[in-house]
Structure formats: C-alpha cells, structure tokens
DNA replication complex GINS protein PSF2
Amino acid sequence: MSLPQSLRTSVIPEELEMIASQELVEVIPLIAMEKTVFISGEFGPLRPPMKSKIPLWMALNLKLKKKCHIVAPEWLNIDYLQDRLTRETTLPEFSDLPFRFAEISRLLLDAASDDIPNSDKLRLVLKDLREARQAKSREGLQQLDHSELSLPNLCSMEINEIRPFFIRSMGIFTQLQRTTQPQE
C-alpha cells in the first residue's frame, strides 16, 4: 500500500510534544483558582496545598508564572528508569514505558527541573535509555520482513523516527515483490 505524499512526512518532535502536553500531571498549586472550562475539559479548582491533576500544558504555563510546583510522574525517577535501562540492555524486547515518556520527560525537565529530584542524573539515564532503544530499533529494522513487523512497547517518538525509513522500505519491498512475481 502506498501512502499519499502528504502522509509520508513525519511529525516533528515539537508537534509530538504538543500532543503529549494534553496528558494530565499532578501539581501543587501556589494560588487558588476556580474551576476553569476549556475545549478539552474542565480543570480545577486549584486550592493550595492540595494536589490537583491538570493538563501538562497548563501545568507548564503555571510553572512558568511561578504559580505551581509540578509533581513528577511516578515513572520519572532514577530507580524506575535505571531498571528499564537494565532491561533494554539485557533483554531482546523493548521494556514497557509510557507511550509518550520521551516528550513528557523532556518538557518536564526543561521547565520544572527544580521540582524533579535528581534532574541531572535523570537526564543522563534518559539519554542512555533512548540510545539503547534506538540501537534496538536499528537492529530490528535490519531484520525487516515485508510480511510482518512487530515492535511492541515502542513509544511515539521512536515510531516517528522510524516512520520515514519504514515507509521507504515497504515501498521498495513492494516493488521488488512485483518484479519477482511470475507474469500471469
């Protein structure tokens, strides 16, 4: 199957981050705010010092204005990510991570590193984890088969990175298959 040219380009990382910013995160508000209605839903009320769940984009906006502290998701800690890194380097399959872990962790570490314990070490572990997963992706693509591709636990950023290569490869496989089939 051939995709139209408009669908062959990949989404840029910033667009993926914008999509990921719809995820809900916990915040500790520093200001009181009534329930606010947006197209995506109602959020609030915010009452300090009680935790509230709001979209990441809203949390980042409030953090920028120094009106909240962002609580790191439970998976964004050294022990959890170090365990996932160990699995990536020792097991053949991809370890289970949140689908948008790369985008969310980048946004949080860029905007709220003061709210996240061990943020510098987290950056290093995330970088190592990303490199291990990229190496595993490259390995998997070398064994690409026209009939099936199974890469469970791939995250959105990784899918986006291999999409252009995969689309070109499938096109070449299809052309080769057409030229090698006996003419009827």
